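Weekly structure sync - notes
Attendees: PM, LS, DV (DV joined late)
Agenda: review two folding runs queued last week.

Item 1: First target. Sequence and structure tokens pasted below for the record.
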Amino acid sequence: MILGSFHDAKVAPQSPMARLGTALPRLSPRRPFLAQLEEAAAAQPSSAELRDLRTTITSRPGESAVLLRRLFYRWLDLPEPVAPARPRLVPVPSAVPVGSTSPVQRPVYVSAAPDGGRITVRRYAAPLQRRTRERHLAGTHLVADIDDPDATWPRSADVLLLPLGRPSRTEATAIRDAVAARYPGCGLIAIEEPDDACVVLLRDGGRLHARWHGGRPSWASAAIAASVVHDHAVPMAGAPGPVRLQVTIGPDSGTGLLAIAPL
């Protein structure tokens, strides 16, 4: 993290915000922007000062939704809903020129099963499912974005998605170790790449690259590629060269050719 500006006079001395302003570097217009970001990214994860500062911000990390909802309903003198208090994704306004209506990919239950010489992928919006009761979810795995504001999804994910550009391939091993320690239930990590491709990091240390060939259909994505790898990773990891699979999401959706190769 780098501060573009910071008004020291507007924060209380010795407060967590004042300490943060002292600890973080300021963006310099006289140096390359990328170099400053890389320096901060390398130094800050191991910073004892920032680690100590995080402990002063809250004594109940990850519980704000529960505590705030409880407080608001008490003020309103109303009974609190029985459903768990969880943060929800807020759609991006339609005026914003982006390709998705959400800043992160929504969690989904996915199966990628052989079907007449092709792999048929089926996806179900996770927040709408009752996994212990729904028969159609048998054999599915959970795919979640690491930046999902509801932390229960990435913590429970079998496939964890990392957005485009974070990290680079050269940082993949360190990222795998850090993410695996934080999310021990994760089966694989998928790092998004351009053109809906992805680098897949397996728990056993293997690395695969999944890429769509030819005119990929509109539904093709890094997340779907990662799901195919998740359900078919064992034979692919031992293959001497690329494995090419025909992938579809339904009878009228068209077919995409996905090539998966060891890295």
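Item 2: Second target, run right after the first with the same settings.
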Amino acid sequence: MPEVAQPRESDPAGLSRTGETGGMRPTLHDRWLEWRDRLLSSPRFQRWAATFPLTRPIARRRAAALFDLCGGFIYSQILLACVRLQLFEKLADAPQTVAQLAPRLALSEAQTYRLLEAAVALKLVQKRSAGSYGLGPHGAALLGNGGVAEMVAHHALLYEDLADPVALLRGEVGETRLQRFWAYAGNPAPEEVAPPGVTGYSDLMSASQAMIAKEVLNAYPLARHRCLMDVGGGQGTFLLAAARRWPQLHLRLFDLPAVAARAESAFAMAGLGARAAATGGDFHGDPLPGGADVISLLRIVHDHDDEAALALLRSVRMALPEGGRLLLAEPMSGAPGAEPAGAAYFGFYLLAMGSGRPRYPEELKALLAEAGFRRSRLVATDRPLLTRLLVAEA
């Protein structure tokens, strides 16, 4: 399995997060944190905090948060069961009782009740009158987002790869399930992947891309541009969304030949004609076509280690005219209110995939500068949990 690159030594943002102090004396803040850690780890203090009226609510919240960390895998499996059984779809029309749902789920009434009560605790389902159950706030939100359900089902592969996380960290695991699923990851000749090898991941990316497209296009209007090229654009979901908003825009897609063929079919079905075209190739070795004044990389850079990511950004810079723009959109480390999504979720997802790592915006800006972009800025998106957006000027 390829070794995942660590933060580059030339990058202060990356180095500052390695935990290396270089012999520097601890700051006053460091000493305060050390004192806090000793206090919080003291059983005596824990007992006191749990009973003292002013600290009791805080102690209970921290205890619940710690338990959620321990029970997180079980919670995710409950969600997976709900998705596989299409529970939310079955509750969408009207609330139902255990007796009504059991035969529809092919479960006994006892196990249907067990699943429903677990789903209630997770706010996926909500108790209604007369012993019935309806959608909860999380279940209703998920029902309106097919891409999320697709990802939940897909996570079964990730759970298998994380069965021994220490072995995964030490590189003691052979080929992972995610490496087999993402056929291009670590493949020395990704352009030779046959159409059956791209179907699964292309469909998954397409299902979830609509949410990302909305975030990016809301954050950065394309009215001033004439030609958009989406590199690694899959089946063209992002370009189709852009085409609907800006009819003046010409569209180009670059991806592996087997994927580009699927995009070409999608463009034809959408009636885009000569306005859209897809080119097959490998952006690791093939130059990108010119002619676009804006290029997008959606959830592409974090799939690659630093050397490959820098090479890709240089290739994008060469394909853009002076003053052209790059839209680099992906989940990033340190997103306010969504910190676990970057370093925790994507950190280990990409580890299992065998390539790439989540990066802080400062790290990506450093790579962009090294690739030859004049300046870059972080543009706010509505939901940074899904994606953040960097706009770089060539």
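Discussion on item 2: The longest strand covers residues 250-255.
Action: LS to circulate a short write-up before next sync.
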